[in-house]
Amino acid sequence: MNLISQALAKDLNLDKALGIFRVLDDQGVPDESLEPKLSKDFLLKIYEYMVRTRILDEWLLKLQRMGKVAIHAPNKGQEATMIGAALALREQDWMFPSYRELGALLVRGMSEEEIIDRAMANADDPLKGSDFAIYGSRDKKIVPAPVPVGNQIPHAVGFALAAKIMGDNIVVLTFFGDGATSRGDFHFGLNFAGLFKPPVVFVIQNNQWAISLPVRKQTAAPTLAVKGVAYGVPSIRVDGNDVLAVYSIAKEAVDKASSGEGPTLIESLTYRLGPHTTADDPRRYRSDEEVKRYEAKDPIPRFRRYLMYRGVLNEDLDREIWGRWRDYIETVVRRCLSKPELPEEVIFEDVYSEMPWNLREQLEEFRESLRVMKSLGLRVE
Amino acid sequence: MARIEKVKLPDIGEGIAEGEIVRWLVKKGDRVKQFQPLVEVLTDKANVEIPSPVSGRVVRFLASEGERVSVGSPIVEIELEGEAVEPEERAGSAEEVREGVSPELGEKVEVKKEERRVVVRAPPSVRKLARDLGIDLAKVKGTGPGGVITRDDVLRYAQAQQGAQAQATARAAEAEKIQVEAVEKPKAQTVKVEAAEQAVERIPLRGIRKIMAERMALAKSRIPHAYIVEEVDVTDLLSLRDHLAKYAEGKGIRLTILPFIVKAVVKALKEYPLLNSSLDEDRNEIVVKKYYNIGIAVDTEMGLVVPNIKNADRKGLFEIARDISMLASKARSGKLDLSDVRDGTFTITNIGSIGTVMGMPVINPPEVAILGVHRVVDKPVYIDGELKPRKVVNLSLSFDHRVIEGAYAARFLNLVKRYLEDPILLVVSDNELKV
Ligand SMILES: Cc1ncc(C[n+]2csc(CCOP(=O)(O)OP(=O)(O)O)c2C)c(N)n1
Ligand SMILES: [Mg+2]
């Protein structure tokens, strides 16, 4: 792993920010000099996280189309990056994700059921509908993603800096998109990180689009990773559809941060195969041919071929894994669908510890209008 | 018990209110499983596949391909798995089938496949552009990804259309010229044509004139106007005016019949409130206003403006007269405030002061009606079998037929006529004449 260490040495290495680090080729055949030595169980666990993420993602899209979920940002095609990076974290570490990291939530121990409950805002949603497809959990050390693109970057840096000052052995990993690197928050965060060297790992999910704006229209920089070099943050570009490459680099970055050697920026080159969100129609701005080209680089079949190449997986086991998770998640979906809805009144709760008189008055009016609307058979939105 | 589920167009998020049925992915009689794709729907934002919320058999389509349906309205009936339909219930639901939708739609869809309406794929901004230019998007070829029609496609199409039109005009002009030349001396004619071409002045459409142009275009293209006319004998009103004019003069007020008309209109509006409303097209609601700000159309050098008399129902005759002359002079000197022209509820245009006997005014949006007052003329009128010289004025009312029916408008105009022919009634309280 000489190459990786070299890439992440304290010295800045522009080549690594301009090149691309990969372990697997497109066919899933590993470069043996870079291949991490991972147990069979661990490899299968990575694969199962990818499978679960893909299935869950399809369900959330479907549930949105049925009017059961308000909005969803599809993950399809980006599973290797989110799962590879999140797996590098230790239990005590914190994660500041963006809105497109379902796989990372699963890795941190969040269940499909909790994710679907929250997405549907049913009676079991712990946040009672006030989260917007963006999940946080103090238990699992996940900070909810802010809606404004890239705001989590300075938050993560500040959190890591605080940990450093307090002497806590914590690493902070934050995910954000290519679009976020065009915002000020990225630059504020990177500048601080370069200067104060907090234990933070930045993972750019470069899925090549910020909604309808391609990366080449966002920046004149040759890669996004070179932006980190400019701030004095060791930076490396990896093949984000190669889960082993992402995992290896993220693991090194976490180890390095935890041993006091400061931040790392990882630009993970991937591709969003689905729409930006359920309110987006990508055919309006990108060609079907482009999507086809990247479907051929889908990280899941690529990793599957690697596992088969290494004899960790065979057709039967593969079918068993998909079947098991499909059945399980469908059962979970049905259960979530059968749960009662949240009562409308909850929008008044959790604003103040005790509801002030004006909110109580509004609540009464609201109840009255709901009653009238329902008695007239009107749809309550 | 048999149960039929009416599947509704789900709320597919982020402010989507309606969608267009692009394609049914199932046929009548098909068995569908829960979560199986049912229909392709095009919304303002995206083309989406809607999964079935239930398992069962497709009984009947309630919306056809190409139809726009709003969120929450039923689109297909599915007989739930293992539950046979009982005849009565079937009949019951048949009655609920919306107008214009054939119950056999399922079969028809099959037949229609060949000549299926072209599905237009275009973003909202392009749809608006096409609407503004009066272009039917179905005729425009899309060159964007997946056949999406782009802004450029629409502009190119518009230019091509314009080119074709200009060519046609040019050809017609050419033909005419040849004819003329055949009769007259060729040379002289050519010179004349050139001279005529040079003799134009181009006036930029700016400011009030531009606003007028836009609002009138909007009014005429959007509002289905209907018109009625009434002849009003104002002989008695004019003598009342003459009588009161003496008092008015003392206060520096020039009294015309217009303030009387404002009073008569306000009283009649109270009895026919729909004429004092506007149409909220987004919400499909008529907004009836409980205040009466009567607009007076004023012709100025810069164009037409319509300041309004605020709360005309609470003002006396002289006060209204004073407001009118104040607003008119403010308008002519270009000193109107925004508040003077905002929040009008009904407009009167006194075109007769210039001298027409008839005309159909254009509604001042978002109002729903406008009254045209024409020139007072001397006319012989039969009264009790005897011809009498009388002063007569034509009142024309243009109204928005989406909101108001002809009979309603006619009753309103009759009441205005009654107040003006028998002006003593103006002292009677609002609604006291109502039977
Ligand atoms: C400050 C800000 N500007 C604009 C938006 C609207 N918006 C939401 S997501 C997005 C694109 C972000 O692209 P990227 O960072 O590449 O992430 P991706 O969606 O590709 O995962 C934009 C512009 C926003 N949420 N916040
Ligand atoms: Mg992006």
Task: Please explain how this structure is put together.
The complex is a heterodimer of chains A (about 375) and B (about 425). By secondary structure, chain A is α/β, with parallel strands linked by helices. Chain A contains 14 helices and 7 strands. In chain A, the strands form 2 sheets. Chain A has a 5-stranded parallel sheet, sandwiched between helices. A two-stranded antiparallel sheet of chain A has the order 4-5. In chain A, strand 4 and strand 5 form a beta hairpin. In chain A, helix 4 runs parallel beside helix 10. The mean pLDDT of chain A is about 90. With about 425 residues, chain B is of the alpha+beta class. Chain B has 3 domains: about 80 residues, RNA polymerase II/Efflux pump adaptor protein, barrel-sandwich hybrid domain (OB fold (Dihydrolipoamide Acetyltransferase, E2P), Beta Barrel); about 80 residues, E3-binding domain (Dihydrolipoamide Transferase); about 220 residues, Chloramphenicol acetyltransferase-like domain (Chloramphenicol Acetyltransferase), CATH 3.30.559.10. In chain B, the strands form 5 sheets. In chain B, strands 9, 12, 15, 16, 17, 18 and 19 form a 7-stranded mixed sheet that branches. In chain B, a hairpin with a 4-residue loop joins strand 4 and strand 5. The longest helix of chain B has about 35 residues. Chain B is elongated and about 85 Å long. Chains A and B meet through helix 3 of A and strand 5 of B. Magnesium ion binds next to strand 4 of chain A.
Q: Mean pLDDT score of chain A, rounded?
A: 92
Computed over alpha carbons, the radius of gyration of chain A is 22 Å
Structural category of chain B: alpha+beta
CATH architecture of the largest domain in chain B: 2-Layer Sandwich
CATH fold field value of the largest domain in chain B: Chloramphenicol Acetyltransferase
What compounds sit in this structure?
thiamine diphosphate, magnesium ion
% residues in beta strands of chain B = 15-25%
Largest sheet of chain B: 7 strands, mixed
Distance between the termini of chain A: 56 Å
- Total count of strands of chain A: 7
Total domain units of chain B: 3
Question: Element order, helices and strands of chain A?
Answer: HHHHEHHHEHEEEHEHEHHHH
Uncertain residue segments of chain B: 85-116, 178-193
Unreliable segments of 5+ consecutive residues of chain A: none
Strand content of chain A: 5-15%
What general outline of chain A do the C-alpha atoms trace?
globular
Strand order, sheet with most strands of chain A? 1-2-3-7-6
Class per helix and strand makeup of chain A: alpha/beta
